[in-house]
Amino acid sequence: MSKKNITLGEFIIENQQHFQYSSGELSRLINSIRLAAKVVNHEVNKAGLVDILGNAGETNIQGEDQQKLDVYANEVFMQTLINREIVCGIASEEEDDFVSVHGKTGNNENKYIVLMDPLDGSSNIDVNVSVGTIFSIYHRVTPVGTPVTKEDFLQKGVNQVAAGYVVYGTSTMLVYTTGHGVNGFTLNPAMGTFYLSHPNMEFSEMGNIYSINEGNYIHFDQGVKDYIKYCQSEDDGKEAYTSRYIGSLVSDFHRNMIKGGIYIYPKSKKSPKGKLRLLYECNPMAFLAEQAKGKASDGKNRIMEIKPTELHERVSFFCGSKKMVEKAEDFMNK
Ligand code: AHG
Ligand code: MN
Ligand code: MN
Fold first, then answer.
1. Cα of 25 to ligand 3 centre, how many Å?
2. In this structure, which of 119, 189, 243, 325 has its CB flanked by the most CB atoms within 10 Å?
3. Model pLDDT for residues 151-161, shown as the tens digit of each residue
4. How far is the C-alpha of 308 from the C-alpha of 62, rounded, in Å?
């Protein structure tokens, strides 16, 4: 088969060789995520046709409205991973606490845990704008065969074994890394097959897109305000950057990785710790960014070196083209 037609299934098997003594467990896990992504994709794509829109009438632990597709996507990913007994634990943005997976025999020998944001950008569902799924995979740190504990989930991002996202957009893509670069696969909906369409994805060192919710401008720290003005300025022969902000982290990140740019969700007077979640959103995106030669920081520190203290912890997020993130850090450190 020519390299051009390589499917995600084939790619996963080929890549197993990167992991010495691999038991195939990680491959099976990524395969399960691929399956759940296809199921969610099917539902997302018919969202406009069925009476699935609107709030499910519940709020999640962070007091945010959950929309029906959030609940659905969470169910699909949780059940796919639980039923296939492919992990020993799961934590989700939509669940108050982590879930320990015991397996039918009560004897779960799996070594991986998954953390996920099952539907990212949920405020965009009912306006036909791209949403996504973010996932992050770690080895458990407690002994195999025992129930997982919080310690397994509160690991630094540097410990990630794999991470990725699915973007349900004009076409549906699955983009992931196992620490050997970033590869993107596009779903052929007629076949139900993901094909390698974006091998070795990389951020350019510099870009000209900045992505931030400027509606929060008056609440930002001075460093962020100054950096935004720098983005807009034409000083020293620099061209003004253009602004693009979808409001779906996955889609904003995806565009910036392809075109070159920086995504920022800083802490502010409105959200003193930031809005995005370290474990479900920032760490996986940071791993992808670094694997794609980009950078991710909280304005001062490398995202993946922050030691989490709680599951739903939030953090400031600066992510994208390396030189742009470094410049933003200069402003934050002034
Ligand atoms: P989620 O839908 O999982 O709650 O995430 C929404 C996040 C992220 O996707 C997006 O970049 C950001 O929130 C948008 O926030 P604002 O509407 O405050 O700009
Ligand atoms: Mn999200
Ligand atoms: Mn979400």
1. 26
2. 119
3. 999 999 999 99
4. 17
